[in-house]
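Readers outside the structure-tokenisation community will struggle with the description of the input data as it stands. What matters is that the chain and its backbone geometry are given together, residue for residue. For illustration, here is how one protein appears when written out as sequence plus structure tokens:

…
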Amino acid sequence: MRPSPLSRAIGAVVLLAVSSSAASGQWANTGLIAAASDPIWSVRWRGINGAMVTPGFAPNAATMSGIPSVWNPNASDTRWIGATASGSVPVSGGSGTARVEYLFQTTLTAATDQVAGRLGWDNLFLGAFIGGTIDANGALVGGTRVLDAFIAQPGQGLFGFCRDGDGFLPGSSYPNCTMPFIISGLAVGQQTTITFVLNGDGGTDGLFLTGATALVPEPAPALLLITGLGGLLLVVRKRRLS
């Protein structure tokens, strides 16, 4: 039986509402596109704690392919990003796991005030911030912290991958080596720059962010569905009365 014009119209309204809801609140994964660099994420780096590093800035963060075996594997729509394709920068002096500071930044127009996703990092994750400025030394000044330095206990001070001892997940968790996060306080409908701050040792340092979507469905698609169906029913009633 062929669907009536009314049923086809209702289907179109429902599809439009669902599509609108699915597209809203999307946040670009790191390394979303299979390319040498990521045009959606930038990265800035500098030496800290006495380490000698030539400061640098890449408007398009490098996509990393040959990643360590303890990291969450790259996927078709999410890849590790870093200052270079290897995740390494020349460094001398200093010691330990915090010799280089990285500022990974992306700008989005938020559809809701909260997003949730999953995160991996190497070496140390210091938090995520909204706003702020970059000073002459390449450091983030000001801004509002929207994600703490730890993702889940006992993750504070641990590396963002799967390895017994220093990883926030044990080796047995591989290949699921990311932790969930929630960011709140986004300005709905406004462009927002978010900065993820990492410390590394200069060798294979990187960021992996995937699956960031709106936590709560927007009211707009539901309103669209109700309004559209209401209009269709009004048209049908008028036709029947005429």
